[in-house]
């Protein structure tokens, strides 16, 4: 029986709804396609041993498996992993781990650790991030994306949600599909540097998709939006405006 840290979010009983609400929208589709584009560009071509931490229903794991990598898919939600097993049933090079990352075997290390859209659901995100970095083999890589607190503030400013900001985004009836704990990109970058990692890539994910005035173009002009997201997502100042922040970092050889 695993123990989940107090305040951490699990998607048991709502995993199917979460899967549809996230990946059945242009927001989720665009986030996933931007991340896979950058991974295609930056990951080695040879098969890697990968930890997909907080990998949920297996959307990113499927991309990695199709690239020939071996994947250990981790999540705290049994319901999410059940959906992942259905999605990934035809792949032989996948394993599953139910429980928090703190319960992963301490002596097992990975050439790539993927942690996408997980930290914002945790009560102590940087502590968990430090544990994940310990699981990276020397010279291995980290692909990390997280909900951008700076962009969260900016979006609520332009929507006029001033009271929500003043309350530090804490409301009595929190929606379970809303992230709990966004992070400042500068804070995460400083943290990685303090642990000796070298950041090789950083990009904003959905730098303007969520801000467009006419929401209809999110669907009607999706491909044009995607092209512009890729064009501007790694450029200053747009990189800092993405609703999610993505980075790839490398652990020292020793």
From TrEMBL:
One of its GO terms (molecular function) is tRNA (5-carboxymethoxyuridine(34)-5-O)-methyltransferase activity. Keywords: Methyltransferase, S-adenosyl-L-methionine, Transferase, tRNA processing. Coiled coil: none annotated. One of its GO terms (biological process) is methylation. Its EC number is 2.1.1.-. Residues 50-140 form the Methyltransferase domain. It comes from the Bacteria. InterPro entries: Cmo5U_methylTrfase (IPR033664), Methyltransf_25 (IPR041698), SAM-dependent_MTases_sf (IPR029063). It catalyses: 5-carboxymethoxyuridine(34) in tRNA + S-adenosyl-L-methionine = 5-methoxycarbonylmethoxyuridine(34) in tRNA + S-adenosyl-L-homocysteine. S-adenosyl-L-methionine binds at residues 31, 54-55, 75, 116. Catalyzes the methylation of 5-carboxymethoxyuridine (cmo5U) to form 5-methoxycarbonylmethoxyuridine (mcmo5U) at position 34 in tRNAs. Belongs to the class I-like SAM-binding methyltransferase superfamily. CmoM family. HAMAP family: tRNA_methyltr_CmoM. This is tRNA 5-carboxymethoxyuridine methyltransferase. It comes from Bowmanella dokdonensis.
């Amino acid at each position: 029986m695993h123990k989940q840290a107090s305040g951490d979010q699990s998607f048991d009983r709502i995993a199917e709804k979460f899967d549809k609400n996230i990946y059945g929208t242009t927001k989720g589709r665009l986030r996933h396609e931007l991340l896979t584009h950058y991974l295609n560009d930056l990951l080695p071509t040879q098969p890697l041993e990968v930890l997909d931490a907080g990998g949920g229903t297996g959307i990113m794991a499927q991309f990695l498996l199709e690239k020939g990598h071996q994947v250990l898919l981790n999540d705290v939600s049994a319901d999410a992993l059940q959906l992942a097993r259905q999605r990934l049933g035809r792949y032989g090079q996948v394993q599953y781990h139910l429980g928090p990352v703190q319960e992963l075997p301490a002596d097992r290390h990975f050439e790539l650790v993927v942690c996408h859209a997980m930290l914002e659901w945790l009560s102590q995100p940087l502590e968990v991030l430090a544990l994940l970095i310990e699981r990276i083999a020397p010279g291995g890589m980290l692909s990390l994306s997280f909900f951008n607190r700076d962009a969260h503030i900016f979006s609520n400013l332009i929507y006029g949600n001033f009271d929500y900001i003043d309350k530090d985004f804490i409301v009595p009836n929190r929606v379970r599909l809303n992230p709990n704990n966004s992070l400042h990109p500068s804070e995460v970058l400083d943290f990685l540097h303090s642990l000796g990692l070298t950041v090789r890539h950083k990009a904003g994910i959905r730098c303007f998709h969520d801000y467009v005035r006419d929401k209809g173009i999110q669907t009607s002009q999706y491909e044009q939006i995607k092209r512009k997201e890729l064009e501007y997502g790694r450029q200053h100042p747009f990189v800092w405006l993405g609703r999610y922040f993505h980075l790839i970092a490398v652990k020292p050889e020793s």
